[in-house]
Every structure is written in structure tokens, then in C-alpha cells.
Amino acid sequence: MTTTRRAASGSFAVCVHGDVDQGDLIVGKVYRVVRPQRNDRAADVRIVDESGEDYLYPRAWFAPVDLPLRARKAIATHRLPAFRNDAEERRFWETHSFGDYFSQMRPVRVQVSKKLRKRVEARKTK
């Protein structure tokens, strides 16, 4: 990460100040820096925080770090594996945090039968 507005995608920064009330940052932890969006202020930096999504934080809360290649790969490559079956997927989620993979999740369209929809609506009104 540089002190200029355009931080390179794939750069990293260590948190030197955190908002302890929200718990989205951990002081001393290294976070991935994401390219700024068009309307982002120059005083802010876009960080992938503990939620797994990128948000704007004051640039002063972070110090740029230059990591060795092995460390960059370890931080940046939480790739969601392809599961062979439901049991394998269940075992995976028993030992992994959803937050580490949240940014890779994509919305899907689900069709629900009328019978199930009525049962869910009936529970909602109780």
C-alpha cells in the first residue's frame, strides 16, 4: 500500500488502530487492501476486514507492509474448495470460518415449493 490514493490490488496493511466497539478490525493484524472505488475519499483506504467484505477505513488506521511472496499467498488465497458431496462440505464448515470465505459467496436464486412456502409463512405468523 502506498500513501497515494491508488493502492495496488493485492497489497497489504497492518492495523495500528481499531474500532473496538464493532470488532471489525484487530490491532496488529495484516489485512488485504482493495482498489478504491470511484467515490472513495483519498483519506480512506478500502480494507477486507473481519467480516470478509471490503469497507472504507481511515488511512491513518493502517501502516503499509511489504510481505514476502509466501506470506502474501497465505493471506490472499482462502479459496473455497469444490466439494464432492454434502458430507464433505459439512466437515469443512465444522473446522473453517465462514468469514474467511464470505467475499467468494455469490447470491443464488432458489425456488421453493408452494407447500413449503405456506409452511414457512405459517411459522412466521405464529
Model description:
This protein is of the alpha+beta class. It has two domains: 66 residues, SH3 type barrels, CATH 2.30.30; 40 residues, no CATH class. 24% of the residues lie in helices and 19% in strands. The chain has a five-stranded antiparallel sheet with strand order 4-3-2-1-5. The radius of gyration is 19 Å and the shape is extended.
SSE order and pairing:
Blueprint: E1 11-15, E2 30-34, E3 44-48, E4 54-58, E5 62-65, H1 69-76, H2 86-95, H3 114-125
Overall number of domains: 2
The percentage helix is 10-25%
Instruction: Classify the beta-strand content into a percent band.
Output: 15-25%
Overall pLDDT confidence: 79
Name the overall outline.
Answer: extended
CATH topology of the largest domain: SH3 type barrels
CATH class of the largest domain: Mainly Beta
- Low-pLDDT ranges: 1-9
Order of helices and strands: EEEEEHHH
Radius of gyration: 19 Å
Concise description?
The protein is of the alpha+beta class and 126 residues long. It folds into two domains: 11-76, SH3 type barrels (Roll); 86-125, no CATH class. The chain has helices spanning 69-76, 86-95, 114-125; strands at 11-15, 30-34, 44-48, 54-58, 62-65.
